[in-house]
Amino acid sequence: MAKAAKKKSDEEINSRVHPRNTHTLFDHAQAENTLIKAYNSGKLPHAWMFTGPKGIGKATLAYRFARFLMNEGESGPGLFGDQTAPTSLEIGQDNPIAKRIAARGHGDLVTLELSPDEKGKMRTSIPVDDVRKIVKFSHKTSIEGGWRIVIVDAVEEMNRNAANALLKVLEEPPEKTVLLLICHLPGQILQTIHSRCCHLPLMALNEDTVIRLLKEQAPEVSESDAVQLARLSEGSIGKALDLWAGGGLDLYREMIALLGTLPNLDMVRLYAFADKLSASDPLAFKTGMELFLWWLARLTKVSGQGTFPELVIPEEHKLISSLIERHGLAQWLGLWEKCSTNYARATHANLDKKQVVVTTFMELQTLMS
Q1: Cα 106 from Cα 123, distance rounded (Å)
Q2: SS3 for the chain, per residue?
Q3: Which of 1, 42, 255, 277 is deepest in the core (most CB within 10 A)?
Q4: What φ, ψ does residue 323 adopt, rounded to 5°?
Q5: Are strands 177-183 and 198-201 parallel, antiparallel or unpaired?
Q6: How far apart are CA 22 and CA 61, in angstroms?
Q7: Cβ atoms within 10 A of the Cβ of 90, count?
Q8: Separation between Cα atoms, residue 92 and residue 98, nearest integer Å
Q9: pTM of the model
């Protein structure tokens, strides 16, 4: 019963913080102004690609813009002789259109995102059949006589056939239809899709903003933990919340303690850590390995630039200082590339996770010997 109750609570949290339900946008005033100016110009581009790290508010901005466009289409400039150009995308939560979008009940808005297959298992990519719905949608008349909006979250999650199907819509854009493409990894997108979109890059959130949002969305997180999660997430509230929910901060602390035993790794600790990452929770391995690679990338950067970033936990300074005294940039970069390749192979080839963790950390010890 307790387990079921926790699952329900998690679902409620996910629903509450979904971008379609989020009305406040932080740290992206410049991006919002770009959209307002484009709208006020009367020559709004038909396709936008919002780029930047995952979890910084790109989808929030997309839904914010969708609410604005649909509201303007129903009661926009010119009503009762009002010619005042809008200066904000803000649409209140009590607005009827905002409520229908939050409830997924607006007929002129289509959203593409990862969804479960017929067996209830979450797909790893957006299939072509889902994108074909956009093609049909784009050739229909607006249900409410205003704008039609398509949000793709995220565009790099489409498979090849799906990307080609989307390209057909971009090549022949229907009138009064806007496509808002969320993109975390621009390098994975077809160049032909890139070239048909207006690009709007969004920067990572300020550390203070991430801390504030953590306190709002996860009030049980302590002040010190919030600071450490904000630094670990590098300006992504989405990543910070994922790390908190998945125990990522505790994994990071345990990892730093393990690395502190170098140059002779504590093998008992190493195997205990490997057991934890290879246990039944499939996210533990991904979280732990990505945290290690992130830490190793930071170490490499310090070695190359000679300056320390804001530390996640105090113990890191002594650890990083001792390691960069032993080797230069080339050795650390080579190790990062080798460990990254091993992790990628493990992910795609379904290798023994415990052995992958042990081997990865032993690569570091070998370099130190």
Answers
A1: 25
A2: CHHHHHHHHHHHHHHHHCHHHCCCCCCCHHHHHHHHHHHHCCCCCCEEEEECCCCCCHHHHHHHHHHHHHHHHHHCCCHHHCCCCCCCCCCCCCCHHHHHHHCCCCCCEEEEECCECCCCCECCCECHHHHHHHHHHHCCCCCCCCCEEEEEECHHHECHHHHHHHHHHHHCCCCCEEEEEEECCHHHCCHHHHCCCEEEECCCCCHHHHHHHHHHHCCCCCHHHHHHHHHHHCCCHHHHHHHHHCCHHHHHHHHHHHHCCCCCCCHHHHHHHHHHHCCCCHHHHHHHHHHHHHHHHHHHHHHHHCCCCCCCCCHHHHHHHHHHCCCCHHHHHHHHHHHHHHHHHHHHHCCCHHHHHHHHHHHHHHHHC
A3: 277
A4: -75, -45
A5: unpaired
A6: 9
A7: 14
A8: 7
A9: 0.86
Write the pLDDT tens digit of every residue in 108-137: 999 999 988 888 888 889 999 999 988 888
Q: What is the mean pLDDT of the segment spanning 180-188? A: 95
CA 273 – CA 344 distance, rounded (Å)? 20
Rounded Cα–Cα distance for residues 286 and 72 (Å): 43
- Judge whether residue 286 has pLDDT over 80: yes
Asked if residue 248 lies in contact with residue 291, where contact means CB atoms within 8 angstroms, the answer is yes
Residue type present at position 344: A
Nearest in space to 113 (alpha carbons), one of 102, 121, 105, 123: 123
User: What is the spatial distance between Cα 109 and Cα 137, in angstroms, rounded to a whole number?
Assistant: 9
Give the pLDDT band of residue 83 (cuts 50, 70, 90): low
Which residues share a beta bridge with 153? 113, 182
Tokens standing for 272? 């205990």
Q: Which two tokens stand for residue 39?
A: 């709208």
* Beta carbons of 157 and 165 less than 8 angstroms apart: no
> Considering Cα of 203, then 206, then 207, then 213, what sign does the dihedral take?
negative
